[in-house]
Amino acid sequence: LKQTKNIGLRGISVADTKITMIDGIEGRLEYRGYDIKDLAKSSSYEEVAYLLLFEDLPRRGDIVEFTERLISEREIPDAVHNHLMNRPRSAQPMDVLQSTVPMLADFDPDLLEETREANIRMGIRLISKTATIVAAWSRIRRGLSPQKPSRDLPHAANLLYMLHGREPDGETARDLDVCFVLHADHSFNASTFAARQVASTRAHMYAAITAAIGALSGELHGGANTKVMKTLLEIGEVEKVRGWVNRQLEQGRRIMGMGHAVYKTTDPRAIILKDMSERIGRRLGQTKWYEMTRLIEEETRGQILKSKRKEIYPNVDLYSASVYYMMGIDVDLYTAVFALARMAGWVSHIIEEKFAEAQPKPVMYRPEADYIGRYCGVLGCRYIPIEQR
Ligand SMILES: CC(C)(COP(=O)(O)OP(=O)(O)OC[C@H]1O[C@@H](n2cnc3c(N)ncnc32)[C@H](O)[C@@H]1OP(=O)(O)O)[C@@H](O)C(=O)NCCC(=O)NCCS
To answer: 5 to each of 10, 161, 197, how far by Cα in Å?
Structure first.
């Protein structure tokens, strides 16, 4: 019998899905049947979000309409803005994001309508408004006023515009767009599973997204990208990488950005991000971050192969760190940027879960655990009043 306990559900299939296919052996990733390599090369985040939500690629009229819907939802309620103004400037971006999502629910006219269409409308609002929230927070905490969202720029370019208060150049905008495509979905990862689990109780879209954001914040999941950049800044020089990796591994620590629960080969997203990191580094004359990251990859692989006889490969977070850094995004914002991109995937999974689009009927997740705690016989332990303990 397969061991299913205390292994973090690794290798256990808990549901069917029609959204994303991962082949961890071959290193393949497909959204709704389309290869991530093709999508990264030729698609856009708007098109991928449409594909995830509506199950197929849009035609020209569809994408024009969908993009317009996204743009029309960029503004955030005054109440959310006022709330941001009152937060301590030290508040973590993921905490800010996680706590403002339920505030958006307060203003959503579709909140209690349990139809696919209403959930799509909520999803579109979430995709657009959360980007505005993250960008607004990054400026407010620096004492700047938030940049109003653009009415023309694509989603990723608009994020850079709202963060920096100026339009990004075309190449940078396109690079972030590709990052968004690569992060848009990844099947039953920890945060998506959290979202689906909450959605399975018939809680609303915002409640499920809030759970997902909490799960993504951890360093073993989305939090890894910020950790990678902090590591690069801490190491500081290419020459110090090997020694640093060895010390970490000797102390039994994990190297962030390396390893994956599903891929047993290179994460196809990491291949694309690695090239991107190198290209941006060359363009800016800052190849140091790329070089250091490449060495972390090489050294970690070599050491783990030697000590554990196991192959370990880079994941999506290893090279995205230097890419975001060179785009001028604050280091502690990377996980929130990941969350913004993943929004389309989460929304699609919540809808699939709620409306049983890949299973016969909706079922609430409710696993069991074997009790191994205190036991005093069939009558239970004798309760002693507090004065007598
Ligand atoms: C993502 C992650 C949680 C997957 O974990 P996992 O499913 O347990 O991975 P594996 O089963 O392949 O791990 C096998 C072994 O390699 C080790 N390992 C895995 N990732 C490692 C890492 N990044 N650094 C050091 N050792 C690592 C594990 O400790 C384990 O060793 P053990 O058998 O002696 O306990 C893990 O690789 C990790 O912690 N990575 C760093 C965080 C990260 O980058 N997260 C983003 C993921 S997209």
So the answer is: 10, 47, 18
Q: What is the CA radius of gyration of the chain?
A: 22
CB under 8 Å to 156, separation ≥6 — which residues? 45, 173, 176, 177, 179, 180
Amino acid letter at 72? S
Strands 20-23 and 34-35, bridge-based pairing: unpaired
Place of tokens 């699939």: 352
Ligand 1 atom having least distance to the Cα of 308: 34
d(CA 250, CA 356): 47
pLDDT tens figures, 176-223? 999 999 999 999 999 999 999 999 999 999 999 999 999 999 999 999
3-state secondary structure of 246: helix
Q: Tell me the pTM.
A: 0.97
Nearest CA to ligand 1 atom 33: 308
Q: Please name the residue whose Cα sits nearest to atom 5 of ligand 1.
A: 261
227-249 exposure pattern, b = at least 16 Cβ within 10 A, e = fewer: bbbebbeebeeeeebbebbeebb
- Render pLDDT for 272-328 as a digit per residue (tens, 0 to 9): 999 999 999 999 999 999 999 999 999 999 999 999 999 999 999 999 999 999 999
The span from the CA of 266 to the CA of 313, in Å, is 5
